[in-house]
Each structure stands twice: as structure tokens, then as C-alpha cells.
Amino acid sequence: MPDTDLLARPADSAAAQAGAAVRALPANIEAEAAFLGAVLIDNEVVAELKTPLVPGHFFEPLHQRIFERVLRLIDRNAVASPVTLKPYFETDEALKQLGGVTYLAQLTADGQGLLHPRDLAEQIYDLALLRELVHVGRNLVEGALDTSEEVAPLDRIAQAEADLYKVAEGATTGSEAQSFRAASLGALKLVEAAINSGGRFSGKTTGLDTINEKTSGLHNSDLIILAGRPGMGKTSLATNIAFNAAARAMRDRRDGIENSPGAGTVFFSLEMSADQLATRILAEQAEISSEKLRSGRLSREEFQRLSFASQELAELPLYIDDTPALTIAALRTRARRLKRKHDIGLVVVDYLQLLQGSGRASDNRVNEISEISRGLKTLAKELNVPVIALSQLSRAVESREDKRPQLSDLRESGSIEQDADMVWFIYRAEYYHNALKPDTPDETSSEEARMKYSEWEARHLELVNKATLIVAKQRHGSTGNVPLLFHSEYTKFSSPEHRDYTSYD
Q1: In sequence order, what are the residues at sequence separation of 6 or more whose Cβ sits closer than 8 angstroms to the Cβ of residue 365?
Q2: pLDDT above 80: residue 256
Q3: Orientation angle between helical segments 328-342 and 153-168, nearest 10 degrees
Q4: CA torsion 442→448→452→458, rounded to 10°?
């Protein structure tokens, strides 16, 4: 029997525990002290670090406090040295046990840390991750040994995957809460991004100016619900946004631009296959009718445009997952892997109602949809990326004279509205107006029929190619209508040149 058998009988387990030596958590206090000494001698060591070292990565609590104070001083353009640190630690009880403030001077005594500060930082970081891995492993074992009825094994697995993802990303349990100072610095970075964009937006770009201006872009950790009735163009708009974000990231990467408003994107297509989605994107970019692509009736010039578009998009950081009947847990797992592997910055789900829950709430669709919407919001926060989830609307829209969607039309669960940071409705009056098209008059038609068709045609010319994005909820801004143009032949959205919202029905 192996020395560490998790399935050992209680007696065997007790005997093994009695005979085993107590193992300490992975740590190197001497490396921490040497690194701090190097930093106190030369503050530039911190600026030159490639390892994302934070105070929580130090094992010794005193070293955590010292490094935190060092970072604060450096951030204020002040010198961090044993002398400047002295006032902050004169009353520190842990420091008194080590000889008082003279310990700060001892850190810089030999200067050995200056020989290899990067190696020391990497070791401190790696040992912190190992300690976190130990913590995750203990929680995993404790959870697996809990056999009560309330425990769902699949939930335990999903939680373990989430915890392991955090370890892989360098997260630690000590960084769950952040100071207002850290949060305010993050807020200032968003403002700086908005200023650098010319005052238009601060988040990820949608590629559509009118939407960017209204929403300030797509913001990390936000859940955006894009809803509409069939035929409104939900998938087209989501595809356009996914492509635009990925294309901007590709262009900026080629130009060597950092902090791009673009983003690598993953598109979870539960309704369409990857081939169908790729065909639609190629049709949009080459401006070729999807019908022509499906039928193969392409001119030489159109085929050349299609070929050029295909070559141009070969390196596009857009990933399509067309696995059907995904559970919310499986989707989150796949998104984490893509985040680790390709550093994706945007997630699109088409569409929410095709996802499945854990199975425990399958007898209650409302509870299942609530579980799915919470899972998507959790995913957005966990990966720190915007998540766009498409959603169907109830048929209540069709029974009203005014076909504009409302929040109450969100299908099956009010939790979708509650969990979402933004709720968008796509609405095209042209779609409903075309359904009322009278017969085309001929020589035998009455004057009344001709007049009726003429009135319909005049209204049609007003509505053709016009679409409206209704921002029904926006946690960080105002609601309202956003004008768009919809090119039905290419299933492509664009922004109008003017901003007259009142002319859009």
C-alpha cells in the first residue's frame, strides 16, 4: 500500500499519521529577507521585476508588511530605505522580537540579494503558488470526504477547477479583499484609457461607434445580455462585435500597440456550427450575400474578395466552440482553458437558453436559468472579461401594438435582468413593417389599393436598413436608444454617420 493512500481504513490512516513527520508549508524566509535587502538598497529592483510579486506572496507576515510599505513609498516617488521605514515600524511587535528597527538595517548588511534579485523574486512567487496549491488540495480532500446529501460532486469538481485556475493565474487567498487605494488606481486606469481613446470609450471596443459612445465600451467583469425576437439580428450583432474586437486586437498586435481596446474572443455557438459561423463572418467582411455563398453563384471578382478576406483573417484571435448542449460548468471550464492558453478578453454565448444547468434544477426551468445567469456573471468576474450572452424574448412582444421589447419580456427568469450589468434589445421596425406589405398593385388594382401600397412604400423607405439597440439597463450609465444600420444582404451592422436618435423607430 502506498504511504499516502487517501482511501486507507481509519486504523491504517491513524497509524500513518502517527508515524509521519509534520511537513511545513513551502517557504524560504532567508530568500525573502535577501530580496527585501536588495530592494532597500536599490529601489529600482522593483521596477525591473518581471514576476508579479505582491505582499501576499511573502510567507512571513512581517515581510509582507515591509514590502507593502516599500511599494507605497516607491509609488509616492519616495526613497524606501531602513531609515525611511523606521517611523512605520517602531511600534511593530513582530519586529521588536527580532531586535527592533535594527532588523531593517540587518536586511541590507551583506547585499547578497543584489546579485540575483529576479531569481529570489521568482522563488518567492513559486513557493507562494505551491502554498496556495496545498490549500486548494486540502479543501478538495475535505470536500470529497463530505458525503452528505447536500453535496453535489459536480459542483465540487467545478469549484476545484475554479480554484486551480486561480492558482495558475497567480491568485492567492490573501488577495480577496483590496484596499480602496488599489481600487481607486484601477478606476484611474479606466479614466486614462477613456482619455487615450479620445474621450469615446474606456472598455473593449464593439467596433460600432454609436454603441461605444453610449456604453463606453465593454467593461471587464460585466455581463451583457443581448436579447431580441427571432429575425432581429441578435447573432449577427454578436458576431459583428466578436469579429471587431478580435480584428482590432490583431491589428494592434501587428503594430506593436500595447493596451489595445481589442480582445481575443471566444464565441460559444450552441445554435450554429463553427463552419456556418465562419461562413457568416467571411460573407460580412467580403460583403457577399450569404445566399450566394451557400449556392456557390459567385463572380470572379466576388471570389477574389472572399479569398482576400480569408487570407486577411487567417491570424484572427477568434475562437469558436460549437459543442452542443453545454452545461454552465463545462462552459466555464472551457473558457478558463482558453483564457490560460490564448489570453482571451471577451466571451460571447449564443444563446443563454440553450445552456444546461447542473441537473438538480432540471424540473424547474426558472431555477435552472437563474443558475445559468449567475454562472455567467461569476465567469465574467473570475476571468475579468466582459461576457455577452444572447437571450430569447417571450412571445408577449408579438401581442402588443408597440413591438419594442421591455425588460419584462426576458424569457423564463427575472434573474437574467438582476444578474446583468447591461441589458440590450435589438429592434428593427423594418422587420414588422415588411410583414404588413400589401400586394403590389397592377393595372387592375383599385385606387385605394394603390394608395395603400404607396403609403406602405413611403414608410418602408424611412425604415429600410435602420435598427435600434435599446439599452434597457446599464449599471454604470444611462439607458436609451442607440441608432444602427443593418445591411440585411450581408447580415452586417454598422454605425450611421449622424447621431440623430429621434429619427430611429
Answers
A1: 412, 413
A2: yes
A3: 10
A4: 80
pLDDT level of residue 191 (50, 70, 90 thresholds): low
C-alpha 280/C-alpha 272 separation (Å) is 10
267 touches 348 (CB < 8 A): yes
Q: What is the pLDDT of residues 394-424, one digit of tens each?
A: 887 777 877 888 888 886 656 787 888 999 9
Q: Which among 174, 173, 136 is positioned nearest to 157, based on CA atoms? A: 136
Question: Residue 482 is which amino acid?
Answer: V
What is the pLDDT confidence band of residue 130, given thresholds at 50, 70 and 90? confident
CA distances from 132 to 31, 166, 486 (A): 18, 9, 50
Beta bridge partners of 392: 228
Q: Which grid cell sits at 365?
A: 426551468
Distance CA 169, CA 342 (A): 13
Q: Residue 460, exposed/middle/buried by CB under 10 A (0-12, 13-18, 19+)?
A: middle
Residue 347 has pLDDT above 90, yes or no: yes
3-state secondary structure of 80: coil
For residue 142, give the C-alpha cell: 475535505
Pairing of strands 480-487, 466-474: antiparallel
Taking each helix axis as running N to C, give the angle between helix 117-145 and helix 29-41, from 0 to 180 degrees, rounded to the nearest 10: 140
The residue assigned the cell 449599471 is 475
Nearest to 390 by CA among 423, 362, 367, 365: 423
Cβ-count burial 342-359 (b if 16+ within 10 Å, e if not): eebbbbbbbbbbbbbbbe
d(CA 144, CA 49): 39
CB-count exposure of residue 485 (10 Å: 0-12, 13-18, 19+)? middle
DSSP-assigned beta bridge partners for residue 227: 391, 425
Residue 388 has pLDDT above 70, yes or no: yes
- Structural contact between residues 224 and 421, judged by C-beta atoms closer than 8 angstroms: yes
Residue 471: CB atoms within 10 A of its CB come to 19
Contacts of 469 by beta carbon, 8 Å cutoff, 6+ apart: 210, 211, 214, 237, 424, 425, 426, 427, 481, 482, 484
Q: Tell me the three state secondary structure of residue 164.
A: helix
The model's confidence at residue 10, banded by pLDDT at 50, 70 and 90, is very low
Q: Which domains does the chain have, with CATH numbers?
A: 29-177 (1.10.860.10), 202-425 (3.40.50.300)
Q: What Rg value do the Cα atoms of the chain yield, rounded?
A: 29
CA 260 and chain centroid, separation: 15
Does the pLDDT at position 22 exceed 50?
A: no
